From TrEMBL:
<dbReference type="InterPro" id="IPR003664">
    <property type="entry name" value="FA_synthesis"/>
</dbReference>
<comment type="function">
    <text>Catalyzes the reversible formation of acyl-phosphate (acyl-PO(4)) from acyl-[acyl-carrier-protein] (acyl-ACP). This enzyme utilizes acyl-ACP as fatty acyl donor, but not acyl-CoA.</text>
</comment>
<comment type="subunit">
    <text>Homodimer. Probably interacts with PlsY.</text>
</comment>
<dbReference type="GO" id="GO:0008654">
    <property type="term" value="P:phospholipid biosynthetic process"/>
</dbReference>
<dbReference type="Pfam" id="PF02504">
    <property type="entry name" value="FA_synthesis"/>
</dbReference>
<keyword id="KW-0444">Lipid biosynthesis</keyword>
<keyword id="KW-0443">Lipid metabolism</keyword>
<dbReference type="GO" id="GO:0006633">
    <property type="term" value="P:fatty acid biosynthetic process"/>
</dbReference>
<keyword id="KW-0963">Cytoplasm</keyword>
<dbReference type="GO" id="GO:0005737">
    <property type="term" value="C:cytoplasm"/>
</dbReference>
<keyword id="KW-1208">Phospholipid metabolism</keyword>
<comment type="pathway">
    <text>Lipid metabolism; phospholipid metabolism.</text>
</comment>
<keyword id="KW-0012">Acyltransferase</keyword>
<dbReference type="GO" id="GO:0043811">
    <property type="term" value="F:phosphate:acyl-[acyl carrier protein] acyltransferase activity"/>
</dbReference>
<keyword id="KW-0594">Phospholipid biosynthesis</keyword>
<protein>
    <recommendedName>
        <fullName>Phosphate acyltransferase</fullName>
        <ecNumber>2.3.1.274</ecNumber>
    </recommendedName>
</protein>
<dbReference type="InterPro" id="IPR012281">
    <property type="entry name" value="Phospholipid_synth_PlsX-like"/>
</dbReference>
Length: 338
């Protein structure tokens, strides 16, 4: 039985989103129990409203909530009984295999790093996320915002962690392909940091396939794409905005007049499939890599469907025992790279 701890109060909407998401998630996964952390009375009422099977849920009271605009330093120093911190503490104490929160990203990363500590050989945790790609697979991209400035050595560490996570979740992929996000495919392009990272990756024991440009993220052969947090976050936000823009334009064109509306009826199955495959909610759930425990960050403004997918992400990582495999892989790969 897998146990996940949930920051029930985090995010823009708190229990309005987390409670119905939990109800759906428990229907989908029979071998999971949840630790819901937050105001116990509010959680009890919200779960009862959703008819959640309480025999699979434990409620742990936390008296504080970290605000979405609260500074990480303030949250870490003054919110020691926050739902976010207590949820992560469940992982630290071995009561849960993973924690999920839609709360303040900076506070969540700072708290997770303080409570769980980083893995040996890893200087900084990174935020990683699987993104849709062609040919039926997903591409893991990291870092997506945890580290604005990175050294070449840290980017190499991100590559190692990303490769090991893919191996843990996809046992059939024993040698994941690693790409480095750059402004061109030639090894002479990019900043000095990127050039030095290219050299480190090429000399490593990783399956490095070279530089990857942003316009090929969806059809690259790479299983993992590495970037500093500034670049990765810009790419992520651009992708999310482009999908919303494209969806809005398609809807606008199909509702322009009676003829386009009739065309929309004929194309409805294709449109529904297109929407489902690119629905950002299906890819909700960023992973904090490099910690002694699994922490998954849900988008703060997501709905119950999106939060359910964040729970699914945490479930699959816990099921694959990803942290243990990542830790073993890091030790092996970094020793070979020295």
């Amino acid at each position: 039985m897998i146990t996940l701890s949930v920051d029930a109060m985090g995010g823009d909407e708190g229990l309005t989103v987390t409670a119905p998401a939990v109800a759906r998630f428990l229907q989908n996964q029979a071998d999971v129990r949840l630790i819901m952390v937050g105001d116990s009375a509010q959680i009890q009422a919200a779960l009862a409203k959703e008819n959640v099977p309480m025999e699979r849920v434990e409620i742990v009271h936390a008296s504080e909530v970290v605000g979405m605009d609260e500074s990480p330093q303030h949250a870490l120093k003054n919110k020691k009984d926050s739902s976010m911190r207590v949820a992560i503490q469940q992982v630290k104490e071995g009561k849960a295999q993973a924690a999920v929160s839609a709360g303040n990203t900076g506070a969540l990363m700072a708290t997770a790093r303080f409570v769980l500590k980083t893995l040996a050989g890893i200087e900084r945790p990174a935020i990683a996320k699987f993104m849709p790609a062609a040919k039926g697979h997903q591409t893991l991209v990291l870092d997506l915002g945890a580290n604005v400035d990175c050294t070449p050595e840290q980017l190499l560490q991100f590559a190692v962690m990303g490769g090991q996570l893919v191996r843990a979740l996809q046992p059939e992929n024993a040698n994941p392909k690693i790409g480095l996000l750059n402004i061109g495919t030639e090894d002479i392009k990019g900043t000095e940091t990127v050039k030095q990272t290219f050299t480190l990756l090429r000399e490593s024991n990783l399956n490095f396939i070279g530089n990857v440009e942003a316009n090929t993220i969806f059809d690259t052969e790479a299983d993992v794409i590495v970037a500093d947090g500034f670049t990765g976050n810009v790419v992520l936000k651009t992708v999310e905005g482009t999908i919303r823009f494209a969806g809005g334009m398609i809807k606008q064109e199909f509702t322009r007049n009676v003829f386009t509306k009739l065309s929309a009826l004929a194309a409805l199955p294709v449109l529904k499939s297109f929407k489902r495959r690119l629905d950002p909610r299906r890819y909700n759930g960023a992973i904090f890599l490099g910690l002694h425990g699994v922490v998954v960050k849900s988008h703060g403004g997501t709905d119950k469907i999106g939060f359910m997918y964040a729970l699914e992400e945490a479930y699959h990582e816990a099921q694959a025992d990803s942290i243990a495999k990542i830790e073993q892989g890091i030790a092996a790969q970094l020793n070979k790279s020295e």
